[in-house]
Amino acid sequence: MNYEAWIWTELLAFDNRQDDQGVAEYIRKTGFVPKGICLLVSAPDFVLLHNGMEKEVMLPPDVCSRDGHKGNEERLRQNWTSFQVKSLVDHLHRAGSEVYISMFTAYHRNKFHQEWISAHPEVLQVWDFQGAGLNINCLARLNDGTFFEDVFISKVIRTVLDYGFDGWHGPDGWGPLTTGSLAYTDCSDDMMAQFADHLCQDLPEVVVCKSNNQVSILEKRMDWIWQNRRREWLHFNIARMETFWRKMVKALHDNGKKAIINSAWTKACFEAIYRYGIDYRRIAATGVDYMVVETVAAGLTLIHGRRDQHYDFLAMLMEIKACVPGMKLLFLHGIKDAVENYDLLRHAPARLEKELYSLANVCYHDGENTHRAADGFLACLGDGISADEWRWLKTRWDKAFSAQPGYAGSVTAIWSERAFYSHFDDYLETGGWCSHRQTFFLMEHGVQIQSAARIENIGRLTGTLLVPYFHLLPEEELQSVLNYRGGAVILLGDLTRRKLPCADVAIDYGTISCVIINSGMAQMSMAIPAVEGKFTDEEIPLAFYDDIKYRDIPSVFWNKVADIINSIIVPGDRTHVLCRILDPNGETAVMSLEFASDALHIAVKNNSQIYAKPELELTKNIRSIKILSGFPLTECIPDKDRFKVVIPPQGIVVMEIKTE
After folding, report:
1. pLDDT by residue (tens digit) across 584-623?
2. How far does CA 538 lie from the centroid of its chain?
3. How many domains does the chain have?
4. CA 60 to CA 267: how far, in whole Å?
5. For an engineered disulfide with 213, which of 131, 284, 359, 457 has Cβ 3.0 to 4.6 Å away?
């Protein structure tokens, strides 16, 4: 396979009644050998209570299934022993898979067994609105002053070595904290003492006093910090998370093992810092081997009923790759989860297929070549799936990753690290949009942004570029943008703070403008009347799937900008074979992946609940069209450079097109 297929699964995927713990049966069912298995033992006590392999130990129910739930489509929860789990790891190794231990931070109040944390409640995560919760804060200290991380990491190493795991996977709760918006948590007395030590300065009594977790004190404490020491609080949490992971990675690597981290609660680079204290660049610098990027938009939309985050997560995956180009990324491939109560495989297969293909075909250009942003995926979760269903999935994986990228989409988004770090103050002062938000809003309005690149590689790129918040670029970076001659450049930013020397097109809305240069268009300018007041940030939502507030920018601005961008791309760019939808209605979108001078994959997506039949146009006449997806079954016949195709509701059609 030309991609890494990983599976995240509970012990329920296997059968300890069989001599090999059901490994051979599982591999026969999947039809392939996974690159890696992240074994979700769920409970941190699998590590914290581990005491060697001298004798066989019966494992508690919350290890044998997540939160001790009863079972899946194939079997009821089985009672596993420590020796059986070691045998499982050994047999998965013999089959050819790496195996990683994976767990959350949950505390079940001794529901299934006497938990380690019941003797150490001081490390429970504390929120200002409720006091101590039911999750471990991995940054806390024990009463004797020992950092929990030092105890935990030593236990992880012993567990990994004793069982033979290849490494440790730290998902939600281990970086960042569990549902841990930093406006609310962790506000324990211990974390306040750590914060004071970090600042090396006196803090008000409400911050450093003994609170006994009284909500009235905790709320005042966090209100003061958020209003008066917000930057310092975020930097402290960033530094602590970096320290935790640096210690963990070093201990694992010193023992020949690897580390995997999840991204921060589905957030791209700015909100990962602002809401959760995770700086991806600093995490990557610890040497973490893989990051699992949380890209489960389809599942979240159906579970929570919020806005569809499809383009949000595509833009996030591209941006994270541009931010940490040396780190291996796996996108989280949401399939089904009994505990989280969703099943895209059976309830929304069209959405699942659309999400899979889209995530597999957003890219990163390193200045020499175009690569997929993700090296593969982590299938979530991999139990209770039949052989026919695995075959259905595998067929779609193979098609999604089949073409070697040459040029992706119509527009490449540019990442500037220096502008990114300047944006933090810009947001606090003006509510300015982060680069990721600017990018995915244009994608939602029909602009085919499918690749990202770092600004230092701009001289080696071709095609149309998108440059967010140009007013924050250092002068030398802005000059490199203005000197670009490989295609049109779309600049978004504040013309009241940074003037640009020339423009083909300028669209103004108060403190945000879109300026287009090198497009070949006749000069035009437009001002959309702005209604803007002083930005005031509102209370940060606790739930990760709710949005923080940015400065209001109306849809009319994004619609106009998208219309003009799309009007210049296909007629104006002859460097690559490009594609666009004619007469777009907002319900269909296109992705393209050029893999030869006369061949490309075109994927057309439908966001509506009815069949769509868009007409598409290419920059070259079409020689042939081959349907790669299972639908439609009828032949798709081109008319010179145009064709029509039927797209299933909420689904996708993928084609291989040869041009003249």
Report:
1. 888 999 999 999 889 999 999 999 999 999 999 998 999 9
2. 25
3. 3
4. 33
5. 131
